[in-house]
Amino acid sequence: MRLGPLRIFVGAMLSAVVGCGPGIADYDEAVGDTGYRFFRTDSINKAIRPTSRCGQNCPSIGGKIIAYDFNDSVIAALRQTVNYYRCKEGYIPFEITPEIAYWVIDLKGTELLGPIDEAEFSALRSAQRQRFMGIEL
């Protein structure tokens, strides 16, 4: 059976929107001049990852980023934990958990701090006011 061009096009578009490859929901933006980018590949997968500045030697925050803020010293993010399973037959099985935690990337080094809860994050901000100046989460 021969597929017509329209059927191939419609199939490719559906695969891009609901499949495991690039799709219509893809988006990314620079996190200031930090050398990191915020990536959104769908409504669930939202991550902060380094650019080529330091490659895999730099930490990243995956999962479902709900909010983030940054300054010259740190990137702070609020992340919801998502458990992923393997991509099979055009969809990604996953489980969104109720667990929400704070994560901090130290821009002066390569340290990743997290997961920490709200009380720990508040204590960290209070103890290191200068480092966290302007961070609103």
Can you tell me about this structure?
The protein has 137 residues and is α+β, with helices and mostly antiparallel strands. The protein is built from two helices and seven strands, in the order H-E-E-E-E-E-E-E-H. It has helices at 5-18, 118-127; strands at 27-30, 36-40, 46-50, 64-70, 74-84, 94-106, 112-116. The chain has a four-stranded antiparallel beta sheet. Strands 1-2-3 form a three-stranded antiparallel beta sheet, with no helix packed on it. It is globular. The protein starts with a helix and ends in a 10-residue tail after the last helix. 16% of the residues are buried.
Shape: globular
Average pLDDT figure? 78
Helix amount: 10-25%
Order of helices and strands: HEEEEEEEH
Radius of gyration: 18 Å
Tally of strands:
7
Order of strands in the sheet with most strands: 4-5-6-7
Category from helices, strands and their pairing: alpha+beta
Largest sheet: 4 strands, antiparallel
Number of helices: 2
Can you tell me the residue ranges where pLDDT is under 50 for at least 5 consecutive residues?
A: 7-17
Share of residues in strands: 35-45%
User: How many angstroms does the end-to-end distance come to?
Assistant: 56 Å
